[in-house]
Amino acid sequence: MGPRSVVKTEKVNESIFKDACHISHIENISLSIPDGILDLEKWMMDLMHDCGYKDWDEAERDLQLPQKTMLLFPAQLESVLPIEKKLMLRTALILSRSNTNRYWPNSPMICTQNRLNRSVRMIEINTNEYYGLDEE
User: Fold this and answer.
1) Which of 18, 60, 90, 108 is surrounded by the most beta carbons within 10 Å?
2) Residue range 3-15: average pLDDT?
3) What number of other Cβ atoms are within 10 A of residue 44's Cβ?
4) C-alpha span between 91 and 100 (Å, rounded)
5) 3-state SS class at 103
6) How far is 41 from 110, CA to CA, in rounded Å?
7) 71: part of which helix (H) or strand (E)?
């Protein structure tokens, strides 16, 4: 019988990035889907049109979504309603491109209650500084 592999999983906490010089950007976002919304894609499309955008590309350019991958950590943030529609759309777009742990700017939008209805702290770290690599 051959060797067995051992897998160890650890939960990463944002406190691992105590040294602020490794952090390039922090943003807190929170969204509560309004009651009665069942079709999230239609809700986002209607919100996009209510904000005056013709398509997703126009909305994303104007709303200035983060362009780099960011780490996500659960946050205890109060979602204040009513929220301005453009801010709500920007938040929904970011969360639709985020899995449990990361925001991926180039990923497709996935509109589910679990992705959109949450509060997170997004952190961009300078990985070269964090791992002590030379930047060339």
Assistant:
1) 90
2) 57
3) 21
4) 15
5) strand
6) 9
7) strand 70-74
pLDDT tens track for 39-83 = 999 999 999 999 999 999 999 999 999 999 999 999 887 655 567
- Give the start-to-end residue ranges of the domains of the chain: 17-130
Structure tokens at 135: 């930047």
Cβ-based neighbours of 63, under 8 Å, separated by 6 or more: 86, 89, 90, 93
Residue 27 tokens read as: 């943003």
The values of phi and psi at residue 77, to 5°, are -115, 145
Query: 133 or 115: which carries more pLDDT confidence?
Result: 115
CB atoms within 10 A of CB 134: 5
Q: Which residue has the tokens 């709303």?
A: 63
Q: For 119-124, what is the mean pLDDT?
A: 90
Tell me how far apart the alpha carbons of residues 98 and 130 are, in angstroms, rounded to a whole number: 23
Does 78 or 11 have the greater pLDDT score? Answer: 78
- For residue 37, how far is the Cα from the chain centroid? 21
Q: Give pTM, 2 decimals.
A: 0.77
